[in-house]
Amino acid sequence: MSDGAGQVAIDLVRIEGGTFRLGSEDFYPEEGPVVDATVATFELGRHAVTNREFARFVDATGYVTTAERPLDPADFPGVDPANLEPGSLVFTPTSGPVDLRDWRQWWRWQPGACWHRPSGAGASVDGLENHPVVQVSLEDASAYAAWCGLRLPTEAEWELAARGGLDGATYAWGEEPNDGSRANTWQGRFPYRNEGAGTGGWVGTAPVGSFPPNGFGLFDMTGNVWEWTADAWTDGHGGRATSSDGEGPACTCGCSPAAGPRSGPDDGRRVLKGGSHLCAPEYCLRYRPAARSPQTPDSATTHIGFRVAR
């Protein structure tokens, strides 16, 4: 379809609505309890928004992403303004085994990192046009979707679509763990040795469509990049209060830092779905439809992207 601005064609897949089992009680506490969720028929992007597609949006609108904007000195009293230049979080492999309880071992704040320089100044997305765009905040993703006349999916829509008709299955393809051929996830010892996934031996993001689609014809619904949804974070599916008041659980997924450098505890976190190329079974088994992670809306990292819905 062509968007309302007439700028880009987006391949949307129709997902029939219905009632399905949302969540899981077999892995992490924030995924439970399993509840019946009913979703109306909707459409979802066949793949995550790519660098090429996002570039068209930026070229047409002049949009400046969150990671490209200076940090507000008022949020960092006493800090030298010279240290508040724009930037974002970049995954950096360690030289060997580290304490996996501390995600700061493998994430660093990198000045200059943004969607077209994912790893910082000197980097580029040249040659990565068909990779999912990363280093995008919730605001960035929402702005792109609005430009297209679309929106972000809800968590329930996203999970229904990710299951591809396999209601209650552990993975988007069934019950067998990923051997590197089904999704772009970490292959090796996290966070220092990644042997690469897929026929391309991908380390980092892979081009969209590099791995088999799920039962609905959707690509990379798990692995490759975490994806923004429109829903506020809750600490489970049982109607408990959201954790945006600072009282919910910290993110147990160290591959996805739970709070960005621009936010405090009252951060209005949103739900990320799908896991990423950093998910390793020995540490973060979140390349599953039921998996979810909290993220502050202004956060942008090298493994967060999004897809659009209608």
UniProtKB/TrEMBL annotation:
State the residue spans of region: Disordered.
291-310
Coiled-coil blocks: none
InterPro entries reported in the protein's UniProt record: CTDL_fold (IPR016187), Sulfatase_Mod_Factor_Kinase (IPR051043), SUMF_dom (IPR005532), SUMF_sf (IPR042095)
What residues does the Sulfatase-modifying factor enzyme-like domain cover? 11-310
Highest taxon of the source? Answer: Bacteria
Any one Pfam family here would be: FGE-sulfatase
Q: Where is the composition biased (Polar residues)?
A: 293-302
Protein known as: Sulfatase-modifying factor 1
